[in-house]
Design a protein that fits this description.
Shape: globular
Number of helices: 16
Number of strands: 0
Distance between the termini: 22 Å
Length: about 325
């Protein structure tokens, strides 16, 4: 297993932790305020990390990237972090951690589509079948009457808007990953994955501030987290495992392997969330949900080893 796969599973682990922190936080704070706070604090934390790991001065954070780096990573940040994350936070607020994470299963399909359109990435028929098995299994996992009734009872919104926000987040994130990958396949690129993540977050935050300026509306995004200890702690976990480690590992993964394959591994998030719910929160999961989760895991295993398995067909 190469470093691309290791980075993809490290992403899955990081995002599992951040999902539970974010699920609680998204119901304590408005999604727009939360999005700005995550991006703002991530700029400084990740900036320090980049300077230490890449041995850069703060000024070199701005001067080393090329115009092309700023363009593609900036667009990726705006679509994936400014807009995509806002949609994701809205979906999380309505649906909760487990159900929101299930919609990420649409990500591989969007990533494959945009990768085919923009980067001409290829996928053999066995890989496509494996992605379809994973996506279908996880979609069946969420589509039940009991799940819909539980969403309504939580009174944070209706299932349909939550679903639409989640689909929009998956599409925008998939597109953003492909735009990010363009940076790493261009000759002469010198930015690291951590530096690239910092650029994405910086541009995403500046874009939101620009929109706020145009609307002449500036919501406080620091005070809510300074005043409340729980909010501050949850924000730190969200930033560390979601915006810093998760995003950096995800860029490392898509830079070293097929983007759709990487995103399919990321899409195993619902399974890991269910496992945490069972192990740590002692929640009972129906047998049918376990079956769909097992099928999803089988799909990912086939996807990872598709090139070798295809020889037997």
């Amino acid at each position: 297993m190469n470093t691309g796969y290791l980075a993809a599973f490290a992403t899955l682990f990081s995002w599992t932790i951040s999902t539970f922190a974010l699920a609680r936080l998204s119901r304590l704070v408005d999604p727009l305020v939360l999005n700005k706070a995550v991006l703002f604090f991530s700029i400084f934390l990740l900036g320090i990390l980049v300077c230490v790991l890449d041995n850069l001065s703060p000024w070199e954070l701005f001067t080393i990237p090329t115009e092309s780096n700023w363009l593609w990573l900036g667009l990726s940040g705006i679509l994936g972090k400014s807009i995509g994350d806002y949609c994701g936070f809205c979906s999380m607020r309505i649906l909760g951690a487990r159900r929101r994470s299930m919609i990420t299963t649409l990500g591989p399909g969007f990533t494959w589509l945009f990768g085919w359109m923009i980067l001409s990435e290829e996928m053999n028929w066995l890989g496509m079948v494996a992605m379809l098995v994973t996506i279908t299994s996880l979609l069946f996992l969420i589509n039940s009457t009991a799940e819909k009734n539980e969403i309504k009872s939580e009174k944070f919104g209706l299932p349909l808007p939550g679903l639409l926000y989640g689909i929009a987040a998956a599409a925008l994130t998939g597109f953003a990953f492909i735009l990010s990958k363009k940076t790493f396949i261009e000759p002469g690129t010198t930015v690291s994955v951590f530096h690239a993540t910092w650029i994405r977050i910086l541009i995403a935050f500046l874009f939101i501030i620009l929109i706020d300026t145009v609307r002449n509306k500036h919501d406080s995004f620091i005070k809510p987290f300074v005043a409340g200890r729980e909010k501050g702690y949850l924000l730190f976990l969200t930033i560390l495992f979601g915006a810093v480690l998760g995003l950096s590992f995800s860029l490392m993964a898509i830079a070293r392997m097929n983007a759709a394959v990487a995103y399919t591994i990321f899409a195993m998030l619902p399974v890991s969330v269910i496992a945490v719910n069972v192990i740590f929160y002692k929640k009972k999961i129906p047998l049918k949900s376990w079956l769909y989760s097992l099928l999803a895991i089988i799909g990912v295993i086939i996807l990872v080893w598709r090139e070798r398995l295809i020889e037997y067909f």
